[in-house]
Amino acid sequence: MDILSAENIKKSFDEKVILDGVNLTLQQGELISLLGVSGAGKTTLFNLLTGVYVPTEGAFYLCGQKLNGKQ
Predict the structure, then answer these.
(1) Separation CA 58–CA 49 (nearest Å)
(2) What is the dihedral of CA 35, 41, 43, 44, to 10 degrees?
(3) How far is CA 51 from CA 9, 19, 30, 55, 68, in A?
(4) CA nearest 57: which of 4, 8, 23, 6?
(5) Which of 23, 69, 70, 71 is most solvent-facing, going by the fewest CB within 10 Å?
(6) pTM
(7) Tens-digit pLDDT string for the chain (71 aa)
(8) What is the dihedral of CA 37, 39, 43, 46, to 10 degrees?
(9) How far apart are CA 25 and CA 12, in angstroms?
């Protein structure tokens, strides 16, 4: 079972697309890292996951339960 998953995450601010088509899966016991250059969207993805932002499209799931926008 997937502990955390993201499906087709997109985030736009006004006309500027920051993330588009992000997918990830984290299973129990796995460690992953997110690497990228400055401005690649790493912090935006984290802020989406933690509920600071709501995705423009797509969804996050924790143990199968949708997380979008929950605080």
Answers:
(1) 12
(2) -150
(3) 13, 16, 22, 9, 7
(4) 8
(5) 71
(6) 0.85
(7) 789 999 999 999 999 999 999 999 999 999 989 999 999 999 999 999 888 999 999 999 999 898 876 55
(8) -80
(9) 22
Torsion, Cα 39 66 3 30, to 10 degrees, reads -10
Q: Shortest CA distance to 45 belongs to which of 26, 13, 69, 22?
A: 22
Q: In what order do the strands lie in the sheet with 2-13?
A: 16-27, 2-13, 57-62, 65-66
Residue type at 24? Answer: L
Residue that the structure tokens 């790493």 belong to: 42
Beta strands in the chain (DSSP E): 2-13, 16-27, 57-62, 65-66
